[in-house]
TrEMBL record:
This is ParB family chromosome partitioning protein. One of its GO terms (cellular component) is chromosome. It comes from the Bacteria. Gene3D superfamilies: 1.10.10.2830, 3.90.1530.30. The keyword Transmembrane helix does not apply. Residues 304-362 form a coiled coil. The keyword Cytoplasm does not apply. Keywords: Coiled coil. Residues 8-111 form the ParB-like N-terminal domain. GO terms for biological process: chromosome segregation. It holds the Pfam family ParB_N. Residues 387-409 are annotated as: Disordered. CDD domains: ParB_N_like.
Length: 660
């Protein structure tokens, strides 16, 4: 690439830095210690690679080779170095003044030299599009990388300069800086940055993303794609990104207006198709508000010959699918696909054997809402003023004590679920220990001293004194609640790791570690101990009475570090979920209403309920939701023998529970 540039020699004193050099915003690159080896090499061997320069205001500006230029200036300043003065000439290559690829040339040169600061790369790629008019495809081809990699860097190069500066100064982490790329408007980024840091708050990538969500909807999101055509037709403001898929629809109110209109149209279409009396729409289906609504259900009908033939085909296919789902080697994706197919077939079979009565159709309706990135229909709902009051009204939920009330049966926990909950509890305990470093330090030092000086059995089996990070085994690690992981990550970000420099000798690392303040050491020890700690629930209480007591002290409420989510509820039987809702949480009406829903709908309800308890809950219900967890996850008040896992094959449940 440089062979077409004219060679020339230039005095070192006539060389200046070029503003387009991609390292120009990273002065630490030119610190004497970072170029010491380069200075020594040039002193002995001379300049092996010419500098790339461009004529600028009568001087020769170094477009590529800034570190070599810095080393040359160091040699001039070093009186011990021989043969280097301001008049010493060095080999260069001249880039024409009219060249429009200056950033690309500088970046290409620097990529082959010392590793660049990550932010330098982000800014360089962005500048190549803005200034040089290049595309992600041409940039990728120039540097032998993928288009996807270039696109990723482009987003981060367009983050507000103040935020990039904070990342350079290590005030925020690189991951936190990247989170601001969720919104292409630098003004929106700056406002969120200032709001989250005005009281000296600690920034995390998660909180940044949450704050930016209120500033609009990305066009590539399910919702953005759903409303975009109508939004743009009405002149809605769009914050354009260099890359189309990251542009944002900024007018959240207009987005919601259009969404409601489209949901209303979907509800009306369903009303006409099914024959209901009314239709309505709501952006987010409010289960608490809908608790006052009744619901009607289709009753059994005699299928005709054609319908019966299809029912027989469905029955045969369901039997085949059930055998496939019992394969223990089945991948999660394949299992979920089979699960969805079974749900669809069962729904089709119900439709062929059930129908709403004329009376129910005359008073019931359908509501459309936006859930899981798609339009969701809630059918058979009866408004409070239309609810039938008579006892035993056919198909009506106005009789919560009638035959359609669920019989949830007894909840039993399979051994596999118990083992996974054990892992989740250990992770929550680790988060709590990391958040209480002084107590954890006391525990660690007490164990170390006691195990070494005392005779007999170790004071606890839960802490591994060999200081190896404990492997957290879990069947569905990527689906668990991430609260404890985020808390531990935040604790890690607060650690002083300046002493842990791989370039230092161990003795120097130890000296730096000893110089840390006591509080910083406590945080380090707490984090390390938390990472090596096992869960002690379901162990012998006598052998681990210490850890049980310690858990209660630092983690009296496991819900501060762990929240039940859809991944957990998916592993419960439908009857268990209804029992938990009706008995444990005091949501009896909701349990009755959901009894005829699919398990997937009940799981979604539970997930939403625990993620953000509904505003209309009573104080008692809210307290129950805030405190609930499986008995074996509780840290206080439950003996170990109460949390023993049961066999994988529990006793048969009631007829209703089995049907659920």
């Amino acid at each position: 690439m440089t062979t077409s540039f004219a060679p020339l020699t230039v005095a070192i004193g006539d060389l200046v830095a070029h503003p387009a050099n991609v390292r120009s915003n990273a002065p630490e690159t030119y610190d004497p210690e970072n170029i010491a080896h380069l200075k020594a090499s040039i002193s002995v061997l001379g300049l092996l690679q010419p500098l790339l320069v461009q004529k600028l205001d009568g001087k020769y500006a170094v477009l590529a080779g800034g570190r070599r230029h810095a080393a040359l200036k160091e040699l001039i300043a070093d009186k011990a170095a021989k043969g280097f003065t301001a008049k010493t000439k060095v080999d260069c290559r001249l880039v024409p003044e009219e060249s429009d690829v200056t950033t690309a040339l500088s970046l290409a040169e620097n990529i082959t030299q010392a590793p660049m600061n990550a932010i330098d790369e982000f800014e360089a790629f962005a500048r190549m599009m803005e200034v040089d008019g290049q595309t992600p495809e041409t940039i990728a081809k120039t540097f032998g990388t993928t288009v996807a990699a270039v696109k990723g860097r482009l987003r981060y190069g367009l983050i507000h300069p103040d935020i990039r500066a904070a990342a350079r100064a290590k005030v925020i982490t690189l991951d936190t800086m990247k989170a601001f790329a969720e919104h292409p408007s630098q003004e929106a980024q700056r406002e969120v940055f200032e709001a989250l840091t005005k009281d000296g708050g600690y920034l995390q990538a998660y909180t940044v993303r949450q704050a930016l969500k209120s500033r609009g909807v990305q066009v590539s999101d399910d919702l953005g794609a759903f409303v975009r055509a109508d939004y743009e037709a009405r002149g809605g403001a769009v914050a354009a990104d260099l890359l189309e898929e990251h542009s944002v629809l900024e007018d959240a109110a207009l987005v919601e207006t259009i969404l409601l209109e489209k949901l209303g149209a979907a509800a009306e279409e369903a009303r006409m198709r099914l024959g209901f009396a009314w239709a309505d729409a709501m952006v987010r289906y409010d289960y608490a508000t809908m608790a006052d609504y009744g619901r009607v259900y289709p009753g059994p009908i005699e299928p005709d010959e054609t319908a019966q033939k299809r029912i027989d085909e469905i029955t045969a296919e369901l039997e085949k699918l059930q055998l496939e789902m019992e394969d223990e080697d089945l991948e999660d994706g394949a299992y979920n696909a089979l699960y969805d197919r079974v749900d669809a077939l069962e729904e089709e079979a119900r439709d062929l054997q059930e129908a709403y009565s004329a009376e129910d159709l005359a008073r019931a309706g359908v509501i459309a809402s936006w859930q899981g990135g798609q339009v969701t229909l809630h059918v058979g709902l009866v408004r409070p003023e239309d609810t039938v009051k008579e006892e035993g009204a056919r198909g009506s939920s106005a009789n919560p004590t009638g035959e359609e009330a669920p019989d949830p049966g007894e909840i039993t926990y399979p051994a596999s679920l118990a083992e996974d909950l054990k892992t989740e509890r250990a992770m929550a305990l680790g988060a709590a220990m990391a958040l209480y470093p002084e107590a954890t330090l006391d525990m660690t030092l007490f164990k170390l001293v006691s195990d070494v000086l005392a005779s007999g059995m170790s004071v606890t089996q839960a802490i591994k004194i060999d200081a190896r990070k404990e492997y957290r085994n879990h069947a569905k690690m990527d689906e668990i609640d991430e609260t404890s992981l985020e808390q531990v990550a935040a604790a890690h970000d607060m650690l002083d790791l300046s002493w842990l420099d791989d370039s230092r000798r161990p003795a120097d690392q130890f000296a730096a570690f000893r110089a840390l303040e006591a509080g910083e050491k406590a945080k380090l020890v707490a984090y390390a101990t938390a990472s090596t700690t096992q869960s002690c629930f379901a162990r012998d209480r006598q052998r681990d009475s210490l850890m049980h007591a310690f858990e209660i002290e630092i983690m009296p409420d496991i819900r501060a570090h762990w929240t039940p989510n859809a991944a957990l509820f998916n592993r419960f039987k439908k009857a268990w979920l209804l029992k938990i809702l009706g008995e444990d949480l005091g949501l009896a009406q909701e349990a009755v209403t959901l009894a005829s829903s699919s398990k997937k709908e009940i799981v979604a309800f539970c997930d939403k309920l625990f993620a953000e308890p509904f505003a209309t809950l009573t104080d008692t219900q809210r307290a129950a939701v805030a405190a609930w967890c499986p008995p074996m996850m509780q840290t206080a008040g439950v003996a170990c023998d109460e949390a023993e896992p049961t066999a994988e094959n529990p006793e048969p449940e009631s007829e209703v529970a089995q049907a659920a």
